[in-house]
Design goal:
Layout (H helix, E strand, L loop, with lengths): L1 H18 L8 H8 L3 H10 L1 H10 L5 E4 L4 H14 L10 E10 L2 E12 L10 H4 L3 E4 L2 E4 L6 E6 L10 H4 L2 E6 L5 H19 L16
Antiparallel strand pairs: 1-2, 2-3, 3-7, 4-5, 5-6, 6-7
Helix pairs in contact: 3-4, 5-8
Length: about 220
């Protein structure tokens, strides 16, 4: 059964590549036909945006791509909310949750991977003024920070999300940390994936005050 699902996911991703150039002006009937494919691919597009997913797959240059690790948006949000409600200030280790993973294959070998994930951060807002962190993290507004390239092919976003029912310190002491990684991705596409994912997750979580994630990647100041 695992092999059948894997083959289905990869074949569906191949189909996305094949029809990517035909998506403009598609009818609602065509959209319905596409959604009948891999559940993982459909959930990935729901979280990140269909055009962003097609573009990310396209950058790998592979015709054989497996999409995996994608939960339902509400399941992902429920898990994060539950963790926030259980959090205490002494808790420093947090689970990382995969939003979407796209593995490009050459034969039986993975040639490239695009990975999108989220976790509660070990960094608090009070730590952002530390010179070590301020060199990596760029302040966007009072609730959002961006690390444009903390490592090769990576981009991160820190967002405040006050969870109803959590302790008062949670909003500033436990921000969400989103990450996109992929060697084949350019900075613009990494940002498109990152902002779409952050918006989808925080909206589903019902943050007391939704973080204001900007449309464009903030320039360095």
């Amino acid at each position: 059964m695992t092999m059948m699902l894997r083959r289905s996911n990869r074949l569906t991703a191949i189909a996305v590549l094949a029809i990517a150039g035909l998506l403009a002006g598609c009818s609602s009937g065509e959209d319905g036909a596409e959604s009948a494919g891999s559940p993982e691919l459909g959930r990935c597009k729901s979280l990140l945006g269909a055009e962003n997913v097609a573009a990310a797959i396209g950058t790998t240059g592979a015709s054989d791509v497996e999409v995996s690790g994608t939960p339902q948006a509400d399941v992902l949000a429920d898990g994060l909310v539950r963790e926030a409600k259980q959090w205490q200030k002494s808790d420093l280790l947090h689970n990382s949750h995969t939003g979407c993973r796209m593995d490009a294959f050459e034969g039986d070998h993975v040639s490239d991977t695009v990975d999108v994930s989220v976790k509660w951060s070990a960094l608090s807002l009070g730590m952002m003024d530390d010179p070590k962190n301020s060199r990596t993290w760029r302040r966007v507004n009072e609730a959002v920070y961006v690390a444009p390239e903390p490592g090769p092919g990576r981009m991160q976003l820190l967002a405040v999300c006050a969870v109803p029912g959590a302790i008062a310190e949670q909003s500033s002491g436990l921000p969400l940390q989103f990450e996109v990684s992929g060697a084949s991705l350019g900075a613009e596409l990494r940002w498109e994936l990152l902002k779409s994912f952050a918006r989808s997750v925080t909206e589903e979580m019902g943050c007391t005050t939704p973080p204001d994630v900007p449309s464009a990647l903030p320039a360095a100041t």
